[in-house]
Amino acid sequence: MICRRALFCFRPGTARWHATHASKPLGFIGLGNMGGPMARNLMKAGHEVVGFDVSASNLAAFADAGGRPLESPLAVASVAKTVVTMLPQGSHVLEVYGGKEGLLADGGAENGSLLIDCSTCEPAIGQQVARMASERGVSAVDAPVSGGTPAAEQATLTFMVGGPEPLFQAASAILQHMGKKVVYCGDAGMGQAAKLCNNLVLGITMAGVCEGHALAERLGLDQKKLAEILNTSSGRCWSSEVYNPCPGVMEGVPAARGYTGGFACDLMLKDLGLATGAALASKPKLGLPMGGLALQMYSQMSARGDGTKDFSGLFLHISEKKE
Q1: Is the pLDDT of residue 77 over 90?
Q2: What's the CA gap between 169 and 59, in Å, rounded?
Q3: Which keywords are on file for this protein (predicted)?
């Protein structure tokens, strides 16, 4: 149960809330491949942004872009009433929020603050963070993203938001500067649930498109012709239409640049592992046979040394072009 005191004090969407927060800087924790461009888009929208990252190079890039680096999450929360976090995994989220120098430590986020976690982790982590925040009279939502680094750079991300509905409008006012769509998914943790379901489908469909193109190659079918057919018939999906995994079919996608600069195979592995764990923890327990096979395929790709390559590089492994 989320403390109603936090909602009463926060009053999202009211003139009082906007007047209180408009003059305050925004905080951003986690300034890597995703968080860095997201923070820059907040600055482009006219916001002053203070931030923290464990990487000195990420902090330097943030400063070069006009941000103000601070020494800890606690320091960020002490000056920013709204803080966005974008972290690699659930353990980092719990540390950044609940650690000794965390956002919710004494001297950090206070009554009326809004914390927006854009990391991808278990729904239970989003729910735990919401409880921790509520105990301090602080409002928190989970808002994981879809779209990858290109969408982070172009401010076209999709945000899936979980938390008390009255907070959605206030969170959207910030998130809209970093994405093209903000969707309310339900109570705390439901943004994370939506993200895991989405990426489960993504991992499976990408594997299917990779197999289709591998078969086309063996049968002598022109790969661009296959892509044209897929994208105008029943095989149409995002993995083929927007992010085709076959080299030479599309420009501007990881397959056109050696599978660099995209969504790493190891990150897809992480998300499929989280989805599998959530399914096993559900009541009654749910099996994910397609997801389990996809998890195995990306695990093999990673074990062969391509964990940092874009997950669409699975095409090379299926087509046996990778030794």
Answers
A1: yes
A2: 30
A3: Branched-chain amino acid catabolism, NAD, Oxidoreductase
Query: What are 158's strand-pairing partners?
Result: 146, 181
**Cβ neighbours of residue 226 under 8 Å, at least 6 residues apart?**
212, 213, 216
Rounded distance between C-alpha atoms, residue 126 and residue 143, angstroms = 9
The string of pLDDT tens digits covering residues 250-260 is: 999 999 999 99
Rounded to the nearest 5°, which phi and psi values hold at 273?
-65, -40
**Three-state DSSP string of 59-85:** HHHHHHCCCEECCCHHHHHHHCCEEEE
Q: Which of 24, 81, 100, 195 is catalytic?
A: 195
Are the C-beta atoms of residues 171 and 116 closer than 8 Å to each other?
A: yes
pLDDT, one tens digit per residue, over 272-303 is 999 999 999 999 999 999 999 999 999 999 99
Cα–Cα distance measured from residue 160 to residue 188, given in angstroms and rounded to the nearest whole number: 11
Give every CB contact of residue 55 below 8 A, 6+ residues apart in sequence: 31, 32
CA dihedral defined by 199, 291, 268, 198, rounded to 10 degrees?
0
More confident position, 312 or 261:
312
- What the block records as the tokens of 107 is 């001297």
Token pair, residue 61, equals 């890039």
Cβ atoms of 223 and 256 within 8 Å: the answer is no
**C-alpha distance from residue 117 to each of 15, 133, 151, 197, 304 (Å):** 24, 12, 18, 18, 33
State both tokens at 85.
């976090």
Q: Which of 320, 318, 302 is nearest to 310 (CA)?
A: 302
What residue ranges define each of the domains in the chain, with the CATH number in brackets? Answer: 4-187 (3.40.50.720), 194-318 (1.10.1040.10)
pLDDT at 184 over 80: yes
Mean per-residue pLDDT, 66-88: 97
* SS3 at position 192: helix
* Apex 292 CA angle, 288 and 296, nearest 5: 175
Question: What pLDDT shows up at residue 7?
Answer: 36
Judged by average pLDDT, the poorest of 51-60, 143-152, 243-252 is 143-152
